[in-house]
Amino acid sequence: MEISSKENTRFFSNNTILPVDRSSFKSESSASKEKQSCCGGIKIFLGALSFVYFAKALSGSYLKSTITQIERRFDIPSSLVGVIDGSFEIGNLLIIILVSYFGAKLHRPRIIGVGCLIMSAGTFLIAVPQFFMGRYRYERFPSTINSTVNISPCLQDKSQTPLASLEKSQAKINAGCEKEAGSSMWIYVLLGNLLRGIGETPIQPLGIAYIDDYAVEENAALYIGCVQTVAIIGPIFGFLLGSLCAKLYVDIGFVDLDSIAISPKDVQWVGAWWLGYLIAGVISILAGIPFWFLPKHLPKPESRKDSSTSSEQSKFIIEESKDRRKSYLQQAKIAEMAKFLPSLKNLFGNPVYILYLCASILQFNSLIGMVTYKPKYIEQQYGQTSSKTNFVIGLINIPAVAFGIFSGGLIMKKFRIGALGAAKLSLGSSFFGYLLLLSLFAMGCENSDVAGLTVSYHGTKQTTDYEQALFSECNSGCSCSKNDWDPICGENGVTYVSACLAGCQASNGSGKNTVFFNCSCVGTSESSQSSSAVVGPCQKGNECPKMFLYFLVISVITSYTLSVGGTPGYILLLRCIKPHLKSFALGIYTLAIRVLAGIPAPVYFGVAIDTTCLKWGSKRCGGRGACRLYDSSALRYVYLGLTLVLGTVSIFFSVAVLWVLRKRSSPQDETLSANGERGTCGTKSRKDNFVNSDQLIQSTYWPQKETRL
């Protein structure tokens, strides 16, 4: 009986324990399933967000690669192209506050999907003018456009039939001028870029915040690193796409390519700039599709459920679902608004923050202006085609920038650098970067010999007004226009603005194979015998290819050097601000960079570059078009000089930052507290030194990945 009772007791005990074991098993099983569901969902979102970052980086860099193409296609000056380029930042600023605030209350993945649709619509809108403007017309003498009539370029007899036919043709052109002059199709490009800015706004803050809310805490930094890596790849493909499209003629598929009388080396050449925007628009649509099928919420990881920091969206849900807290929330909002001015005063009372903000604004002014017009500078200074220029930037410069950003972060981590060390690294990066930039002044090409513009018809350097200098004794008997730009290369190595101004009496052939004979201005000084010329400008000097190679090497090293200081400078900004003011400080920083650098820099750089133009094109209905020829020396001094002056002034502000930090730092801790006293900013745990992922992406995306090229 005793044994039996013990067995019963044991059997009863086992039965009572079994339900507990099953319950525990079920709990572990459900937790495992929830973890798998969470990980799977966040990884799908991560993949979709990475593709969106790739799409928006591709379209943004492709716009940079088509700056010169848009300028020529719409016959507009560089200053106006700068306004078009800056319209993206204007669109972004229009709704950034609304999206950042209300986005947390709504379905964030679908808002990102809507942003992708708007972004693609803007990209398509940029390409629309190509289909309504008609075929591209470049300036060419009739005999070079497959004409069956051999017209003399130098029309000495003003009563001859060819001149009359030309006048009739000009009359027909003038008849359709009213409609063309009122179109201003470049406005569609501006509006499209504005829409791109609006569409890209929710992708950055909402996407990164979603990852931060639902990713395992230790994996959040890795996921954001993946997004940033893919974002770096986007500009590479964007410039390579720009290189490919620049090789294709603008009206490819609509005209007979054999009839085209210009080549990609001609300054009037316009590539198929619109084709890349159609491709980028399709990619943006495809990138937005997954977000329409992603849930509003994902299961929170177990490690985050008991965390004191809840997700941004869950805070809104909890607060709004409890009516008893409404009055409390209203009071809290009023109190928060009342703290705005003191917070602003506290922020601008921090000398390190103000000095670093000024340094950043000046530096990004120099970098944004430099990168926006870098393709134009390479084309005009070294005589390279748009295709080769974009290829070089995409394949060489951008990887150097990515490697520089990575190196800066690696140095910070390996040597455990504090705020003072970060300031030194950032200053050293800027100093040596701009010092290398100074050497580019010696790596330029001389002006091409263009009769009447850079040299006289007698071979001496030009000093007089070019409009009067275009005419000489050798072409005095010809009826030439000073507004034409139809360059030919004489056998003496001098470029002439047109066959008429070269005094050519006859021509043979058509299209690219046209040869001009009996050109009275092409004769050498030793011989008065007239010579021949061929279509297109003469090549730059023999030293120019070598200078271009030197430029590429120094440009890559400069890009890397300047990029190394990006991460340390950003960390310096974060570590010298009170924790509760970080988001506010980063918002002010981003706003200042975009308003005071992103928008104005392309405009005034364009205005400065326009002052170096020697020969403006003329529109069909009259008025100034795009620039055809720049003064190489003046362009080099203006472009590099403006970049260097802004960068140098920013270095002085960086030196002031370092001086303040040295003055107020303690021997034990080379950091500065947010209130300007010695102390505690750097004594926080290493974990606190990592920035919030949303803040990191928001401040570092466009300035460092799109400007430090």
Automatic annotation (TrEMBL):
Note the topology in the membrane.
Multi-pass membrane protein
In this chain, the stretch annotated as Disordered covers 669-688
Question: Where does it sit, as one GO cellular component term?
Answer: basolateral plasma membrane
Descriptive protein name: Solute carrier organic anion transporter family member
Q: Which parts of the chain span the membrane according to its record?
A: 40-59, 80-104, 110-132, 220-250, 270-294, 353-371, 391-411, 423-443, 547-574, 586-609, 638-661
Major facilitator superfamily (MFS) profile domain: residues covered: 45-665
What Gene Ontology biological process does one annotation of this record name? monoatomic ion transport
Q: What lineage, starting at the top, does this entry show?
A: Eukaryota, Metazoa, Chordata, Craniata, Vertebrata
Q: Which organism is it from?
A: Menura novaehollandiae
Picking any one GO molecular function of the record gives: bile acid transmembrane transporter activity
Q: Name one Pfam family in it.
A: OATP
Q: Which domain of life is it from?
A: Eukaryota
